[in-house]
Write a structure and sequence with these properties.
By secondary structure, the protein is α/β, with parallel strands linked by helices. A 3-stranded mixed sheet has the order 2-3-5. The chain has a two-stranded parallel ribbon with strand order 1-4. The longest helix is centred in the middle third of the chain and has 13 residues. The chain is elongated and about 50 Å long.
């Protein structure tokens, strides 16, 4: 977990407040790769401290929004719950290959 220790402290603090809560845990967003599309296209690389061979999960921003909408539509069903959104796992190397093919 890249940010797990930071969010773990925040989640613990929220749970100790004694008020109803719902936590949506979102991984990194696929849309973040748009920020590095030039390095993918020009150098077939993503410059990141992450291990390019380690599989990670990503989601679309839209999917995070949909999950939030479900919670807000009927919050009483989700009181004091934590949800972790996930998708398939991919390495940066795999993502670079797909983006490179799409970008030409």
């Amino acid at each position: 977990l890249i940010f797990g220790w930071q969010f773990g402290k925040l989640e613990s603090a929220i749970k100790q407040l004694g008020v109803p809560y719902t936590i949506l845990r979102l991984p990194m967003f696929y849309e973040n790769f748009l920020n590095v599309k030039d390095s993918i296209k020009d150098q077939s690389s993503i410059f990141s401290p992450a291990d390019p061979t380690k599989a990670m999960t990503f989601v679309l921003v839209q999917d995070g929004g949909k999950a939030g909408a479900v919670v807000l539509a009927d919050p009483t069903k989700h009181v004091d719950k934590t949800y972790k959104l996930i998708s398939g796992c991919y390495t940066y190397n795999e993502i670079v290959a797909v983006f490179s093919a799409a970008l030409g």
